[in-house]
Amino acid sequence: MLKIAILEDEEYCLKKEMSIIKQYFQEKRIAHEIAAHMNVEWFLLGLKEEIYDLYILDIEMPFRNGLDAAREIRKLYPDPVIIFVTNYIDYAVDAYEVNTYRYISKEKMEEKLPAAFDSLLPSILTKDERYYMVEKRGEVEKISYADVYYLKKEGKYVNLVHRHGETKVRGTLVGIFQKLNGKEFLSVEKSYVVNIRHVMKIKGYDLIMRDGAAVPVGMSRIKGVKKAILDYWG
């Protein structure tokens, strides 16, 4: 199921975008779900409740614009695709600060939106969603790899810090790191493993993470850690 969110304050444009999207994915016989929003504030309030594969955003709207919405999306989710559909070309440069996939004029969306979908489909449909399963006291918690910010060793436990909070797992950091076996995870110090996707800044010997935490990097590892992160950003 492909999940798509639209943020557009003009009813005519919203209906047109929904029509283009429905027609395209119905013709491709791809199951999809569309959530339509006309208010930025209500859209932002629901960001943590639901994650979408694709966000289609207008830019110029009352109170807060689509760029604000895109920045909030990126604080939480590095992977979803963002497409701006707008009549305002002045924001084009700013739009790419949030890793925008396309910047489409409303006048050309009947042509350009399907073209964008054509190029996106191979990567979206083959996306491999992986989960770390935590079982304790008769309960099982499923944590998406994409949601994990970093891992911290705390005595006999490892604390998984993620988008929904924190989960403690009994075991060694090395053991859990090996079990994750994901190329996005990087050991940066004897007590820390980070998800490179959620590193926002390198500041001296600290990595500033998406949740604002500063994760220390061992002096002997700083060169390799910087290279791995810069390669990912590049």
Keywords:
5-stranded antiparallel β-sheet, alpha/beta, 7 helices, 234 residues, 5-stranded parallel β-sheet, elongated, single chain
Strand-residue proportion: 25-35%
Using the alpha-carbon principal axes, give the shape: elongated
Mean pLDDT equals: 88
Quaternary state of the chains: single chain
The DSSP helix count reads 7
* Radius of gyration, in angstroms, nearest whole number: 20 Å
Poorly predicted ranges (pLDDT <50, ≥5 residues)?
A: none
Cα end-to-end separation: 30 Å
Identify the strand order in the major beta sheet.
2-1-3-4-5
Strand count: 15
Order of helices and strands: EHEHEHEHEHEEEEEHEEEEEH
* Overall helicity: 25-40%
Structural class assignment: alpha/beta
- Biggest sheet architecture: 5 strands, parallel
How would you sum up this structure, described in words?
It is a single chain. The strands form four sheets. The chain has a five-stranded parallel beta sheet, with helices on both faces. Strands 10-9-8-12-11 form a five-stranded antiparallel beta sheet, sandwiched between helices. Helix 1 (about 10-25) links the parallel strand 1 (about 1-5) and strand 2 (about 30-35). The protein is of the alpha/beta class and about 230 residues long. The protein contains seven helices and 15 strands. Helix 1 crosses helix 5. The protein is elongated.
